[in-house]
Amino acid sequence: MRIVNCLYGYLWRGRDNNCNSYLFTNCLEGGKHVLIDPGHIVTPMLREPALDGLIKEIEKDGLRIGDIGLIILTHGHIDHCQAVPDLIKKTKALLYLSEKDKEIAEMMGVKLKLNRYLKEGQLIFEGENKVILEIYYTPGHSPGSISIYWPEKKVLIPGDVIFYRGVGRTDFPTGSIKLLKQSIERLSQLDIEYLLPGHNYNFPPNHLGYLRGKEEIEQNFVFIKRTYF
Amino acid sequence: MEEKRIKSAWEIAMEKIEKMGELTLKEKREMKEKEYAPKGKVMAERFLDEVIGPRYLEIELQKFKNDEKEIVKKAAFEVFKEAIAMEEFSKSQRALEGISVLGKEIADLKDKISFLFEEYKIKIEKAIREREEQLKISGSAIGEINLEATEIWPEINLEFNAKLNQLKEEIK
User: Could you list the mean pLDDT of each consecutive 10-residue stretch along chain B, which spans 172 residues?
Assistant: First the structure.
C-alpha cells in the first residue's frame, strides 16, 4: 500500500504479534528498494506466515522482493528481524542496525549478519527517487532503537518507541522508561505529517493503521505524555 | 527358581570394574575419551562464549592429570580449531588465545592468521563500499563496518577460508 510518494507500508493484519514493514521504493540505483523491519518469518503463537505474506503484499504492488538492496532495522527485537537471514539469502541485500542492538537480536536467537552499524545522522539514497533520511537514536524500548525521519515528506518511522495511544514496552531487561520518555520528548519536537508505528496496536476498527495529519499526531503525543509521563 | 532382585549401585560398579579388567588398552582409552572429551569440549565452548577467561581455563586444565589431561586438551583444541573462521573475526581471536592456553606454540601462526584477517578485512570493506557506491547509499549515519557479515560475498569467503584452512593445518 502506497503511503506517500515512493514510500509503501505493509501493515500487519494478522491476529498474532508481528511488526509493520515499510518500503522506500526505487530509491537506490538499479531500481532497488530499502526495506524497514521485515518482521517474523512465522508468528510465534499462531504460526501465521508473516514473511510469505509480506512478500505477497510487496509483489501485489508490482514490486519484486529480489530488488531489495538494503534492509534497515529500527531495533533488534525478534518480531522485527527474524526474517532478515532468509531475506538476505533471497536478495543479497545489505543490512544496517545500531551497534547496541546487535546483541539484543542474538539474545533472542537471531544471528544477524550486519554490514554496517547505524548512528545518528543523514542517510542518503540517490536512486531514481532521491530520499534523504535522518536517523535519530531513540533508546528506551531497546538500548539501540533508532527512529527514521524523512523531512521532505514529514514522515516518522519510530519503530516501537510510540504507537497509536501507546508506547513501547520497557519491562525487558534492556528497556528503560526514563530513556523512552526522553526519546519520545525528542521525537515530539519534529514536524510530522505521517507517523508510521512499528505495530498496529490500539487502532480502532477501520482506522488507516498509521497516523496522518499534524493534528492527530499532536493529539497522540499529548495523550502519551499525559498517560505515561 | 532363582529369585531376581534389583542390584545395588555398589554391585553395578563392581561388575563394571570386573569387566574393565577384561578390556584391552585401546578399549580403556576409548572409555576414557568418552568420559573426558566432553569435559574439554564444554570447557572450550565456555571459553569461546567468554563465560571463563584464560586464567580459569588454565586452572580447570590443571585439575586433570596424565592421559586424561591430554584427552581434555585435545577435545578443547578441536573446538578452538573449528571456531577459527574468516566470518567470525572476534571468535577466531578468542580461539587462538584458547589454543595458546593449551600450551601450543603458535606465535608465528597467530601472526600469519592475523595478517590474513587484515587482508580479508580490507577486501570486505572494499566490497561493502563498492556495493554502497553502486546502490548510491551515503551519509553521516553510516557507521562502522561489521566484518562478520560477509555471506553476500561467498567468493571472498571461499578464497580466504581456503587460505585459512591451510594455516589451521599447521597447528599441531
Answer: 72 78 78 91 94 93 91 95 86 91 85 90 90 97 82 82 89 76
Q: How many Å lie between the alpha carbon of A168 and the closest alpha carbon of chain B?
A: 24
Q: What is the pTM of this model?
A: 0.82
ipTM of the modeled complex: 0.94
Tens of pLDDT, residue by residue over B135-160, are 999 999 999 888 776 667 888 888 99
**Inter-chain CB proximity A28 and B136 less than 8 Å:** yes
Is B149 close to A115, i.e. CB distance below 8 A?
Answer: yes
Do both B90 and B127 map to the same domain?
Answer: no
In a domain, B4, yes or no: no
Query: Which residues in chain B have their CB less than 8 angstroms from residue A112's CB?
Result: 149
Residues in chain A closer than 8 A to B151 (CB atoms) = 88-89, 113
Under 8 Å between Cβ of B149 and B157: no
B20 with B85, same domain: the answer is: yes
Chain B residue with Cα closest to A93: B152
Cα distance from N-terminal residue to C-terminal residue, chain B: 60
Distance CA(B100)–CA(B61), nearest Å, equals 13
